[in-house]
Structure formats: C-alpha cells, structure tokens
Amino acid sequence: MKIHKNNNNFTFKAGLTKSMQAEILRCDTKKIENYFAGRNIESDFQNSKVVAWCSLKCLQILETLNKKFCLNLEYPKGIFVEDFRNLNSSQDDAMGFTNFAPAFLHKNKNILVPEKTIFFNASSINWENIDNIADECYEKNISTTNFFLEQILHEFMHVLHENNMLKKIGGTKMIKILQDLLNQEVLNEFLHKHAKSLSHICDYAASHPLEAVACDLAKREIASLDKETLLPVSNIFNKKPYNKKIFLTKNKDNSIEKLIRKYWNGNLLV
Length: 270
Fold this sequence. Notes:
Layout: H1 18-26, H2 29-37, E1 42-44, H3 49-69, E2 78-82, E3 96-99, E4 103-104, E5 112-113, E6 117-121, H4 130-139, H5 150-169, H6 171-180, H7 184-198, H8 209-223, E7 225-226, E8 231-232, H9 255-264
Parallel strand pairs: 1-2, 2-6
Antiparallel strand pairs: 3-6, 4-5, 7-8
Helix pairs in contact: 2-3, 5-6, 5-8
C-alpha cells in the first residue's frame, strides 16, 4: 500500500485509546518477536514499537478467528521492518508489501526471501503517526476505513489470499497468473474493465486484483472487531463473498462481490 510521506511529530488521535497508547509506548519489541517466533514466524521490527504492537494485534485477530471459529487461516512466514531503498523493489514509497513468491529481495544480501513474507517501510514512513496516516489514506480514498490498524492488517490479508489461491489453483498456476499481471497491457485491461466498479471499495482496490481482495478483507475484518479489545466478534469467512456455500444471485448489486469471489479463488484475470 502506498502513501505520501507524513513527517508530522509524534501523535495519537481518536482511533487509539489511552490504554492502547500506553501499551505501545511500553511494549518490548524483542518480546513481540519472541511471540512471533513461537508461531514459527521470523520477525525483525527494528525496534519500531508501533509496527511491532500493531502486527501483534493483527496476528491475534487471526489466532482468535482460528480458535473461536475453527478456521485454519495462514500466518505470515516473516515480518520485517526494512529500509526499502535496500530492497530490489519498485515500491520505495510504499507503506508495506507482501512477497508472493520466493525471491532475492535484498540488494546486498544473497538471501532467498520466502513467499508470504511481509515488509514494512522504515525509510519513508513515520509509523508513530499511524493514526494520521490512516486518516490521510481514508480521506484520499486510498483505504476503506480510517482505522489505525488497516494499513498493517492489509498485508496480513494478502497472506490469507495467497494461501487460499495456493489451495484452489496451486503455486505454479498462481505464479503464472501473477506474472501475466506484470504485463502492462493485461493490467490495463483489468483497469478498463473493473477499476470504476472496484473504486467503490476504495481507489487502491481498483489498482490491482490482489489489492481489491486485501482492501475488501481488511474492511470487513475491521467492521467485525471489538474496537476496545481489537479482537473479532464475528466470522467474516462464513459470509459472502468468502463462503463458497452461499449462493450469489445474478442481481447487479452483487457484481463487486462476485468479482471479489473470483479473485479470492485465484481467478485474477477475469
């Protein structure tokens, strides 16, 4: 997800309660990394308390969904705060991105980064202003809510989407589809056919089928949260468009849901 630089001073606003603010300020990033390690998730938050704490809350959302509703949602393989200028990426100004296939992403390191690995930007994002960032994204229709967790939860949703695609169509076909979408003509065809419709989710959802699903999932998940505990009170995966058992009618009002359903299952080129 991309956003313009925000260089305001340290600030929290209405999205974070006083108790949440206090938790962030006193959290130990190393203890959070150990918590992730106990779930077989490698992490290095570079002492970013905001990213570490918010990532922990996102993981706990998935853990609660799995336990409370007997789901098997996938966790990230890794979460890293990184100077994006040191990565082989065209997204230097992005807030974060999720790696969908094993790749050598570091410019000066011979390290194969596995799929389902999340990176958050340390070079151009002031994470201490996460509430202002969320407000700015929402005001510009870049994101679906002004809730402070959305930009980080968005990347966790990419991991869920990737895992579902792997189950539905397999890795070889998924990679082929993603490679096809790197072709500007293919992407332009997607934009021509669906951008106007998907912009009703948000403008970022209209930029790519992967972003459409992550934005939609994040919006639905945030709506399901208890805003004090930050834990889900309902299961978004037993509702359309994510529950395959629910029949989607031909009513035009369901056109976006039908599209999201196809993307969710790996049919990204429709």
